[in-house]
């Protein structure tokens, strides 16, 4: 744009009709290279773009002057949140990161920023979703934040609830974490909740394929090592319901009682045509406009295009992710999703040797990836197992049944059972 125009005026005008993260950065220039016909020479513009982008003020949040000062930490965290979430104003210190638009992708970026001043595990960011609580945690636990005392890295306490109520154990979704359950966790404030993390999640190079049976063994090992009980409540959504069911089968075989809460889980064999990995990426991350990935069947090529697409959108300011969004983070999500889909396709639903209770929440709104009647296979297996089966339909789609306000129906029902 010409230098005599005020880019702030333009951005303020755009902010009235566009979401903040969609507003592009504006670079003032004297002129653009032209062809002999007087038209913009796009090839030359492309060549000078790296230099032009350097003129954009890249966010560089100053580190706190004193990380042992709570006020200094709060100011730093406010600046980091404002940057990562592309907020117009500094966030309130008592508002949740997720309520401001944060999600699991951005949580990893937040972790990377904070690790510039202190080592902190992802689970602690999830446990402390407000600036106030996170600042308190960093003040008190900086030296001990690398590991969880008396608890393996796979399992951590996500919510501190009433000790008289049996806890809930959440199985991680296809992004490898339990961040997707944030609204459900918030709606179960009085219930102690534990969550697991996909094995090797912290290192994208360590992520590999695990079958449903292997994942269930991995999570159960940590569960039984730390929390011995005669009764367990397992919570799952989508793919992870298969892992939870396998865990439940193993627990009841040991003489334990199990309540399995399952949200719209589909059995692989019920899907007449297993959707492609590209289709799942498009469905899970609609904000990244991944239409061009359709038809790409080679997994290595698909991963490369997926990463390039997201990083290109960041570099061209189509999405407001900062330098903390890396190819390693994108690769991590891709590899976990790929492994989970393969595991779902190969899994054969076993009969449980002893009955367990299943509460099944179905999304009434079905999209093109969803079988119309996913509950039928679960009804059939429960008839064989001799276990109780409760069925509740929710007026929302596969993703949004897990979010507020629809998830309140789920949590209210769970509270009645607990």
UniProtKB/TrEMBL annotation:
<dbReference type="GO" id="GO:0016787">
    <property type="term" value="F:hydrolase activity"/>
</dbReference>
<dbReference type="Pfam" id="PF00975">
    <property type="entry name" value="Thioesterase"/>
</dbReference>
<dbReference type="InterPro" id="IPR009081">
    <property type="entry name" value="PP-bd_ACP"/>
</dbReference>
<dbReference type="GO" id="GO:0031177">
    <property type="term" value="F:phosphopantetheine binding"/>
</dbReference>
<keyword id="KW-0436">Ligase</keyword>
<dbReference type="InterPro" id="IPR036736">
    <property type="entry name" value="ACP-like_sf"/>
</dbReference>
<keyword id="KW-0378">Hydrolase</keyword>
<dbReference type="InterPro" id="IPR029058">
    <property type="entry name" value="AB_hydrolase_fold"/>
</dbReference>
<dbReference type="GO" id="GO:0043041">
    <property type="term" value="P:amino acid activation for nonribosomal peptide biosynthetic process"/>
</dbReference>
<dbReference type="Pfam" id="PF00550">
    <property type="entry name" value="PP-binding"/>
</dbReference>
<feature type="domain" description="Carrier">
    <location>
        <begin position="68"/>
        <end position="142"/>
    </location>
</feature>
<dbReference type="GO" id="GO:0044550">
    <property type="term" value="P:secondary metabolite biosynthetic process"/>
</dbReference>
<dbReference type="GO" id="GO:0016874">
    <property type="term" value="F:ligase activity"/>
</dbReference>
<dbReference type="GO" id="GO:0005737">
    <property type="term" value="C:cytoplasm"/>
</dbReference>
<protein>
    <submittedName>
        <fullName>Alpha/Beta hydrolase protein</fullName>
    </submittedName>
</protein>
<dbReference type="InterPro" id="IPR001031">
    <property type="entry name" value="Thioesterase"/>
</dbReference>
């Amino acid at each position: 744009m010409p230098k005599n125009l005020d880019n702030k005026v333009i951005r303020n005008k755009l902010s009235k009709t566009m979401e903040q993260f969609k507003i592009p950065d504006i670079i003032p220039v004297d002129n653009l290279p032209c062809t002999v016909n007087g038209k913009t020479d796009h090839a030359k513009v492309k060549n000078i773009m790296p230099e032009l982008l350097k003129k954009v003020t890249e966010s560089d949040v100053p580190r706190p002057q004193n990380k042992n000062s709570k006020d200094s930490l709060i100011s730093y965290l406010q600046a980091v949140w404002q940057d990562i979430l592309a907020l117009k104003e500094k966030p309130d210190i008592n508002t949740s990161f997720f309520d401001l638009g944060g999600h699991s992708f951005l949580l990893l970026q937040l972790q990377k920023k904070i690790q510039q001043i202190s080592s902190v595990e992802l689970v602690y960011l999830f446990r402390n979703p407000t600036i106030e609580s996170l600042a308190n945690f960093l003040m008190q636990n900086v030296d001990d934040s690398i590991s969880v005392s008396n608890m393996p890295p796979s399992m951590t306490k996500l919510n501190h609830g009433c000790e008289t109520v049996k806890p809930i154990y959440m199985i991680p979704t296809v992004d490898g974490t339990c961040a997707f359950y944030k609204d459900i966790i918030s709606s179960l404030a009085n219930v102690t909740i534990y969550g697991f993390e996909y094995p090797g999640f912290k290192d994208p190079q360590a992520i590999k394929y695990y079958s449903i049976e292997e994942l269930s063994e991995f999570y159960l090992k940590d569960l039984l090592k730390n929390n011995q009980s005669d009764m367990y409540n397992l919570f799952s959504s989508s793919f992870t319901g298969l892992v939870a069911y396998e865990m439940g089968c193993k627990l009841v075989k040991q003489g334990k009682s199990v309540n399995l809460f399952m949200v719209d889980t589909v059995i692989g064999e019920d899907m007449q045509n297993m959707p492609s990995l590209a289709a799942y990426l498009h469905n899970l991350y609609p904000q990244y406009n991944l239409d061009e990935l359709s038809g790409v069947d080679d997994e290595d090529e698909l991963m490369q295009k997926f990463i390039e697409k997201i990083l290109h959108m960041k570099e061209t300011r189509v999405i407001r992710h900062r330098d903390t969004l890396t190819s390693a983070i994108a690769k991590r999500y891709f590899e976990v999703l790929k492994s989970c889909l393969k595991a779902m396709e190969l899994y054969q639903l076993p009969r449980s040797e002893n009955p367990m209770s299943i509460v099944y929440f179905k999304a009434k709104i079905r999209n093109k990836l969803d079988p119309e009647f996913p509950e039928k296979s679960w009804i059939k297996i429960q008839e064989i197992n001799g276990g109780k089966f409760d069925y509740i339909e929710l007026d929302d789609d596969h993703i949004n049944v897990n979010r507020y306000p629809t998830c309140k129906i789920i949590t209210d029902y769970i509270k009645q059972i607990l």
